[in-house]
Queue: 2 jobs
Job 1
Amino acid sequence: MVALVLISILVVVFWGSLESMGRYGLKFLITSNWNPVDDEYGAFTAIYGTLVTSLLALVIAVPLGVGTAIFITENIIPEKIRNVIGLMVELLAAIPSVVLGLWAIFILEPFIKPFLMFLYDDFGWIPFFSTEPLGPGIAPAILILVVMILPIITAISRDSLNQVPMKLRQAAYGVGTTRWGAILNVILPAAISGIVGGVMLALGRAMGETMAVTMIIGNSNVFSWSLLAPGNTISAMLANQFGEADVGQLSSLMYAAFVLMVLTLLVNVFAQWLVKRLSLKY
Amino acid sequence: MTTTSSPELPDPNLDTCISIQNTTISYGDFEAVKNVYCDIPRGQVTAFIGPSGCGKSTILRALNRMNDLIEGCSLKGRILFDGADLYAPEVDPVEVRRRIGMVFQQPNPFPKSIYENIAFGARINGYSGDMDELVERSLRQAAVWDECKDKLKESGNSLSGGQQQRLCIARTIAIQPEVILMDEPCSALDPISTLKIEETMHELKKSFTIVIVTHNMQQAVRVSDMTAFFNAEAVEGGSGKVGYLVEFNDTDNIFNAPSQQETEDYVSGRFG
Amino acid sequence: MIYSSVPKSPERIPDLSYKHWCTRNIGSRILSVLAGFFAFLCILPLIAVLVYILIKGFSSINLDLFTQLPPPPGGVGGGIGNAMLGSIIVTTIASLIAIPIGVGAGIYLAEFSTGRGFSQFIRFGTNVLAGVPSIIAGVFIYGVIVSTRILFGHTFSAIAGGAALSVLMLPTVVKTTDEGLKLVSNDLRRAALGVGASRFVTVSQITLPKAFTPIATGVVLSIARAAGETAPLIFTALFSPFWPNGIFDPIATLSVLIYNFSTQPYDVQNQLAWAASFVLVVFILVLNLLARWLGRFASK
């Protein structure tokens, strides 16, 4: 049954995108002109948006998540508090995407606007900050993605760290390391394969994340290097346009969906390979 | 509760390295071992023997503050190392462990290369000399240089069990502690590896003070100069046992002319 | 450090004290503080989100909320009754599809499979399916059910929505069933077979009940996830401003309501979006805590 579902998903999306692929070929991937009215489609902005938001969110979330995981596995603070923090991070994972999107629109975005304005005013000469932040945009999208993938990274890192056997910790302390000497040099490297697996999983999740991103990213297909400008991701685009698309547009959307599927599949497979590669034997 | 024999060393020429004074160790409310008095001599091998559960490993771990890693573990009494109280409030356990090293029951090399296993410890202890030379010297002293010299860059886990344990010994030697504690180091190894490690201990005795916990009485006879015999008795009104020191003397005396009946019973195999 | 090979008594008592100023200790403390700060940053969003939902949503809680339909854009008053009912209906449909199939697949994997070939493929497929973005599930169901008008000629419908959600629930249910059954020790199975029970009876009356807790936990968690999903519903179940009209028509759900209303420029709609968030989050949190409480029985 499961196999059936899996195969049929692949088939449907692929088949649906054939028409569009036939029309545009690979050019689809690099043009950014997306105009349903004129029946012209190029998905570059969306693809760029998907990659940039996911990767930057990862860059922020990984130190936060791993740091938190270390904090709750070592006995720097009493056990009760550690358990509470762990519980709260897990509950964060349960909050639905839409609700986070709602929060992002009304709370997060006005909150960071002054900071973004500051970036624009003082650093506008850097291409990444070159547009005036008007509201929805890539930057708040990155932040909300961070909030969404943090629980995954923290939970998996915590599990990996807990699985490092006691005898390794004893060996580390036995030669006279400090707590962080042991963590950075012995415990973390031993747990790294699990942590990387979790990070890759988070990346896959970030790329596919739809609702919160759609609500806050601005849905603009105009390409811009600036992180402060509105942008688009593949999933956001699908969410916005699928309901009312006509045949031609539909096919292009299918094509975009196919690209997304391929991307997430690649990440998943790469993750499994990387985890195997990095597993240190002990 | 039998009386313990005198804690003073029989030979007044020997100098005390570690002095355990009325020490009781508890896990939470449960007392694991109580009222231990023992003066461990410098430059000799001291063995802790006794049946399982009598607290020998617990006392050993207390000597270099490894018990700190176990939550809820507390200690009453004093342990003096060269006159310094190991459990004074301002003492840094890291400093203690640099001077008192430990080899564990299960070989536990770091998941790094053989070279790094040894270099890591030396480096964090501030060694600034020739690392290659230190690695070679430590591996030679642990009698494992020949097996390792061609594969220094390979993982520590690629060695056999006995070799891994000797690597761990080499790692401990490399940080140049004054005392080496060994917690049943041969219990997971085959007899040949065990013999090799015992030979190593004879060599190491010239430069370090060694305290070894062992289940194997013959091993105690073979390697140690002094022996401490621990036993356990049931706790009144509760479950579990609490350990205590029965007798501490020259190995010869313990095994051939023990002064306590319990010791006599244990070494002659009447229980164990 | 003294590096000599001759043991000698130190002339003075060794200094074992904790040196506050030396680099490695300062570094250690800075890192600990940093880690603590990161942990704080981690839980900050949770607190912030919950607090705001509470503030903004709670004030709208009244009977109207549960019994009224949402007002037209620009109108006042109204509630989210249809959306609540709709969410329940759609989630139930999804569970009815996903639970039997998922548990069945899990049982197959754990009890009857040979551990290679086909079952390996299924496990791999399940893992991949778990990584599929929720919107792709929606796209898929759209392609299969909606555009082909396979359901008696209906397009967007509650059933389609339920089907999309079940695609998302499947991997979790399969996995937890598989793992839960694996935890049951083989001794128990052999004992049952030893008294002559057939494979089927063994599974249904011995192993399955034993594994009930982890399976139930997984099921509850996947229901919680399905209840909150939006993307797959956008073009399968769509939305409707009316009371549910049977399962073959578009239907309102809490999650889609929040999505629609939060992007509209009217205060009333925004307010309703917050209220709906409040209800949804409470529901999901309750499910999560339930799963956790169930999980406590598993460790017996």
Note: Chain A has eleven helices and no strands.
Job 2
Amino acid sequence: MTAELPLWLAIVVSACILLGALLTLAGCLGLVRLGSFYQRIHAPTMGTSMGGGLILLASALYFSVTLQRLVIHEFAIFVFMTLTTPVTLMLLARATLFRDRMEGAAVPPRASARPATEAGAPEKSE
Amino acid sequence: MSQAILDWSLFLAQIMLAMGLLAALVRMARGPRAQDRILALDALYVVALLLLVTLGIMNDSQTYFELALLMALLGFVGTLALAKFLMRGEVIE
């Protein structure tokens, strides 16, 4: 089966995999290099969204062509990761904010704790 | 020819993903506080999942997909429980 692998498939799959791996690596390097936790929490999402999407797309494409049928169950992982990553990171960021406030670190105060003149304006939920 | 292109790019991608794993491990070991370590664990399981997918393409086998799906499910639950623990000090109230 692998002997008659078409050239265009090899090139497309290779490009997707290499780009996805590069983006994931960039996200992980950002995790190491960025300064504060609130900056760092943005970095690994690159690996989960674009990097993961490209690698899973490459896998779906490869198996769809080599097995001669539609193989799209990789998208289940992609959809699941896209849905769950914001939830977990949101929860983690809120937990961190809560801990920082408890310790009196220099983070923005709660929206409900602001002065009344400011609270009248329509404001974002944190 | 095309098989060689695919093999080499898979090899390079696996090296890059392994470097990503190492970077997440560095953050997990160094991370000043608990939330940094949890964030590193989250990144770690995502990169390990992607490494499994590339291994699946390399070995022309679909078994790795099931492992990757399992990893995504369990990693989500694990990170959620740890974040909840940071917030409350207990997981189940």
Note: Chain B has one domain: 2-88.
